[in-house]
Structures are given as structure tokens and as C-alpha cells.
Amino acid sequence: MSEQPPLDNFLVVDMSDGIAGAYCTKILADGGAEVVTVEPPEGDSLRGWSASGSAANTGTDGALFSHLACSKKSLVVDPDDSDRIELLHRLLDSADAVVWSPESRLASLPAFAPSAIRSAHPHLVVTAITPFGLEGPWSDRAATEFTLQAWSGGIVGLGRGAPDRAPVHVGGRIGEWFAGAYASAATLASLLRGGAGELVDLSMLETEIQGLTYHSVTFQELRDRPFRSERSIFVPGVSQASDGMVALGCATAQQWNDLCVMVGHPEWIEDDKPLEIATRAAQFAPQIYEWIGARTVDGVCEAATTFRIPNAAVGNGANLTDMVHHEERGSFVKNPTHGFSQPGHPYRMSSFELHQPEPAPRLGEHTAAVTAELAAPVRNRDRREAPPAGKPFAGMRVLDMTAFWAGPSCTHILATLGAEVIHVESTTRPDMTRFIAGVPMTDDSWWEKSPIFAGLNTNKKGVTLNIQTERGRELLKELVKTCDVLVENYTPRVLDQIGMDYESVKALRPDIIMVRMPGFGLDGPWRDKAAFAYVIEDASGLTWLTGHPDQDPVEPYSIGDPNAGIHALNGLLIALAHRDRTGEGTLVEASMIEAALNVSAEQVVEFSAYGKMLNRDGNRGPVAAPQNLYQSAGIDEFGRDDCWVAIAVATDTQWVALRGAVGSPDWALDPVLESAEGRRRQHDLVDEKLAQWCRERSADDIVEVLWDAGVPVAKVMQPHRQTELAQLESRKFFAQVDHPVNGVARHTTLPVRFTSTSEQFDMRPAPLLGEHNTEVLAGIGVATDQLEQLENDRVIGRKLAF
């Protein structure tokens, strides 16, 4: 096993401030990159931050900073010191990449705007993380992670929460963490292409669309109805057992039937009637909750696992480190500075060690050393004037053995950025997203009409192989020999049972990178547990912070899958850097649960470091005060009195702007409200008054008044209305795709723009079932006259064959 981390030849300068940039560069540092964090004299804002306010009382750097800044260096640059500015330019001239966000005080200097950095240092990859992107009509508008969730449609996107209450956002500032993971993948994609630098422009609004909504525009345009328009509490969902909270999920008819038997009521099963799981579950909810409440969390989970019902204990900052699966897999490690618990790496490599965390730097700790190093001639760089033509992954061949959302979201990015991605299904076991369409099975080719499958699989090729047959396995192995990468997210036993574990795959193609995306990992007591997105959210703490404080938490029902996909992509790219250097392939074990633990890290860090439990607080949050949803006047498109706006005041300056915009009423002139601490103490009063002001106005009027004043505000959008946002139109986030069965509809592209690629990504329609059988199989020596026999033997095919 190589002891040299794959990225140790890259120097990355971190000119960001906040979670997104810090998490981006943490991923790069864990891969071995040298990361120099550039801070003003007062330091990064995270140094004094903790969600509970505990960091202010310790006299040391905040625990979250100490986690995110592991293994980095600190260079202090005073924006008013011309010598230090020149030093920063020399550092950038020596670096390979810079990560930038507008919150940094240095970012306000014209010389350090992304375009200016790119112009002065054309060899650099400049990754800019901004709320809306660097260009477009909203590029300079005020926003927070909370208001971006509202604009994205993610607050109401998958029907989260009770219809008689305000909708609820996904807690834990999840959008910042997800954007950071996306930014690191985009940075690596640019770095590894081998040419000169470029500007990488990432929009957090667009990452929230990718992470919190489910191809809603495509669904609306192809099916002429929203994917889901009403909010509801999923039953069983999260409920109280005798010793804690537990979550059960019923996503299929079989799971509902098994639940009925498990709780002792097989008579609830009515095979002769159409099954509406949500309606039936709500009808019997009291009895279900009574059954759960009489048992322990472990007892409920053990029974549910026996019946193959998705389940998990609901994790939080206090109990996550003690869960037996996380303990046995070593999912948490000790912070090297303060000894509190923090998540380990989100993926594991077979051929090399990822960098182990070193203590976070003290403010300016490396200023002298960096200054001395830069006094010498800048190290030589290959300064080509332009990156290679084409997309970053052109020439890469990927065998895509994934299904549902997590795996396909990873390979979708590869396909969009130029890789040849071959999506493998079978006529007897297709990708189950083909069934998410609401199309009657009596329709011709109904399995081709899923908007979800269409959205996740653009630009891919489609092959059917029945790997339950000997001939199907033989063809699969021949196909493996032609591929650079294999990505799969089956349960671990599936490939193991057919002799396609990593060692077997490696024997076929020694330099292959095999990315395995099991829900809970390849070992441990939960190895074979069913892993849907909501189960991952439950078991990682993401659910705990979502919901109203006087109710049980509610599952986000979204982020668990795409978050796993983007972390798997990061692991794949780090492995690719290793192969570029050594020629050696790697097994990348990228479990969904450890990806989720990494983006919910703040809960464990806060509890372990300070003994403080972070809890859900409806639509309030630790950063802004006030922060909430407020009902506006008007009737929504479904005829409901259910229109809302999101407002988040993150600074005292924004409070003054809000106060003036609402007419400076007497209540708002109270001096107590001039500080964030005072506004937080008076949050109930502020909410009451803002609710009254908003209720008399339309959402559009509220946004116009407050946004023009510089206050972060947003309409709570239905996700299928995303195309109405001028910023997305300006950035051409949606592309028209013409599908041979479905017709034309808009599909999402990627939330990042590369200056070396075309203005809009080329988007080909998702493949029909087995569409590319002839082309792909011919490439591995299957003659045309053999195809008919393979179809007769049900090894391949173009139609479902149940």
C-alpha cells in the first residue's frame, strides 16, 4: 500500500470563509494536498464560531474550525498591508488552485476577485463558491443557506412536514456542506485534466437544487403534474420507542405488507384494493406507534431488519459515536488538537492511505515559514496557456452498475463532463427509478417514461445484461476489461455472490478503479441493512435537526442520496490522481452513511467538545436572527392559502436595512434588537411582527422590498417552478433534451461552470432499455448474429421481462 497521498504534489490556497470553502479544502487536504488558509488579522470567522455559542467562552479556536482546518497551514495577510498583498500574489503564483468565497475580507479587494486572480495567475484553477454564481441578474444579491433552500424548492420539494404547519427547511446548514463537497470535486476535475488553470464557477443555489429536489422540472414537463405537491408526515417515519427515537420506512407495497405482519395486523393487507401506502399508514398510525412505543430502539430495528423493512435508530450529537456500527467501523476519530470526536474519512482506499488529520493551525502559525519559502524562486510549473480541448473526463470509460439516486448521481456528473458511461440494467431487474413515473403499466413502453430516470441518466449509454445467468456474467467480465472505472451501489452481497468483488475485478483489469457505494459499508453489523436516503439521514443525524421543536423530527427525504454520490465522486477523483501517478488501480469504498456523517459533523463535534446538544428549531437557525418562514398573502397554484417567504438577517447591517424596509415601526427601534444576541432573545416578538407585515403582502412584493434593501429573502418555491428564476435562465442551468419516447423537456445540467467548456453542457437523452446493446457488445467481440440468441436466452433485451 502506497504511503504517499495522491494529492501531495498540489498546493491549494484557501481564500474562503465559512463552511463550504473550508469543507472543500478539507477534502483536498485529506487527499494529501498542501492547503494554505489565508486569513485576515482577525482570523477566519469559524475560529470564533460554535452553533451553541460555547466557543466564545473557551479562549481557544472553535471546535468546528479545529475539525475543518486539520492539516492546513495558516497565513495572515492584512488587506491594508501592501507587502502582505505582494506576498499573497507570490503564493498564488506558486500554487495550483485557489478556493474563493465572497465572505472573506480579502475577497472585497478588486485585485482578488476571481476574474482578477485568473487574469494575474492564468495557471491557477480558481474555484469560486457563491450563492448564485459569478454572473447573472442575481449574482450580487444577498442570500444565506436558508434563503437558498427556499429559492431552490428544497423546503417543500418532497412534501416534508405537516400540512397544518409551516414547511420546514433541512437543518444543519446542509447546503453549505454539500456545496463544499461539490466544489472539491469540481476543483479536482479541473486539476486532473492536466492543462493550465481555469475559472470554476459554482452556484450554491444550483447545488441545493441538485441535493434537495428530485428532477422536479423534468417531472412536471413530462407528466404535466408536480412530483409531489402536498406536505405530509411520513408514517411510520420517526417515532418514539421506549428508550429513544427510531425510524421505519415503507416505500413499497411489499414493505407495507411486511410492516402489517410485523406489528401483528395482517388483516390490514387488502390485496384486492389499490394500495395507497400513505393513506393506509395514516389510518393505522396510532396502532403502529403504540407497537413501536412498547419496544426498545434495538428491538424495533431487529424486527424490522428481519422483515427487510428500512429502519434505523435516529442519530444525534450525543448517541452517534456510541452506535455499534459506527464503533466497529471506526467511523469517528479523535481531533488531533483537542481530542473531541469528529468523523473520519467519507471513503476508504485499498491501495493507499488518505492523509491522517494533523492539528489545525494557530492563527498565522505558518506566516513566517511561508514568507521564507516564497523568498526563494517560485517552484517551476507547467504553465500552458489553455487546458486541453474537450471535457475533463473525455476518454474515460465507466461501467455504471448503479440504480436509484445515489449511484446514478455520481455517474451522471462523469457523463456530463465527457466520460463514456455505460449504464447496466437487466430486463428482469431494471433500474427502479424507471418505475417512478405514475404511468399505467398498460401504456406502451411505460418503463421508458420515468422523468427521474431521464434526469439522472442523460448522456449515458444503456446496456442490459442478466448477471444471474452464466453468459451474462461472462459478458460482464469482458466488458469490465474495457473500462477504466466501475461504479456500483448494489447491496454488498450482490456482486460478491457472482464473483465480482474487487480482487476478482482487479484480476480482469489490474488498473481499474472500482467505486463501491454500499449503504452502511462493506463490513460491520449493519452491512446488509436496507439503505434508502431517509434511513441514511436518520442514522447520521441529518433527520435530528429537521422539524419543529415540539414535534418528532422529520426526514429530509432527499440529501442522503446525492450527498453520497458527490462524496463517491471525490473518492474516485482522488483514486484517479493516484493512478495517474503510479498506474495502480484502487478499490474506493464510499458508503452512504459515512458521507452523511461527514456533512452532519457539527452535531458530534459540538457535543463531544462542549457537551451541548444541537436540536431542531423549526426554521430558525444559529447563524441568522431573525430567521424564519412567514406566510404571505395570496393563493398558491393548487388553490391553497399556503404561500410563504424566507427571511434571514445574518448581520446587524441587514437588520438596519430590514427595519427601514418595513417602515421603521416603534417595535423595531428597540436598541436591544440592534445586536444579534438581542434579536435572538426577542425572536418570538420579531417573528410576530414580521408575520403581521408579511401576511398583508404578496410574496413578490415582500421579495422586491426586502431584497432591494439588501436583506436575504426568498419565495418558498415549488420545485417544479425553478425555471421561473431569472438567475437559472441566465446561467442556462436547464437544457432542453429530446427523448425518443417522452419528447422534449428541460433537464438540469451541473451547478458549476468551467471556463474551458462550452457555455451550456451538451445533453443527450437517457438511454432506452438496452438501447446500446449492439454497439457496446460488438466492442467486446459479440457478433451481430449472436445478439438474437442472447435475447432468446433472456441475457439481453429491450423490453421488461418479469
From TrEMBL:
<dbReference type="InterPro" id="IPR023606">
    <property type="entry name" value="CoA-Trfase_III_dom_1_sf"/>
</dbReference>
<protein>
    <submittedName>
        <fullName>CaiB/BaiF CoA transferase family protein</fullName>
    </submittedName>
</protein>
<dbReference type="Pfam" id="PF02515">
    <property type="entry name" value="CoA_transf_3"/>
</dbReference>
<dbReference type="InterPro" id="IPR044855">
    <property type="entry name" value="CoA-Trfase_III_dom3_sf"/>
</dbReference>
<dbReference type="InterPro" id="IPR003673">
    <property type="entry name" value="CoA-Trfase_fam_III"/>
</dbReference>
<dbReference type="InterPro" id="IPR050483">
    <property type="entry name" value="CoA-transferase_III_domain"/>
</dbReference>
<keyword id="KW-0808">Transferase</keyword>
<dbReference type="GO" id="GO:0016740">
    <property type="term" value="F:transferase activity"/>
</dbReference>
